[in-house]
Amino acid sequence: MSDKTLASLTAATPATGGLIYGTQGGADRKFTLTAAGAAVLEATTTGIKTLIVSGVQTLTAQQCNNGVVYVTANAYITLPAIAPGMSVTLIAVGATYISVQPDTSDFIYVDGIGSVANGNPTASPGQNGDKAVLTYYSGDTWYAATNGWSLGA
Question: What pLDDT was estimated at residue 119?
């Protein structure tokens, strides 16, 4: 890119998201930055891959459309309102604690055990490779298949 082109670009700010083009594993990728800057989304044709690197996050419906979320730091994740066909996989990278909370009107079944609305299935004690696959179960319920996550109150 020429210096003239670079000079005409608008400066990025923390309040705006954006796109980054690059390579990962030798393949060209398009990444979408969130406005908060705490997550980087990889736009693909088969789903959204998200990297969560900090704290409190609310996933979007797009991220829960065949999405994969890699969590590299302790995280408290809120899901969007459930809709038919939604699915998202949460994977702990490192010894990280993950807490997942449904939308206030939804429920989560964890490994066949019911949950109250707004309950938390929690990865405990936060081991590397902890995994939960959350899928649409009914009009107001997610189903979480996990490697032994506990059901919160």
Answer: 72
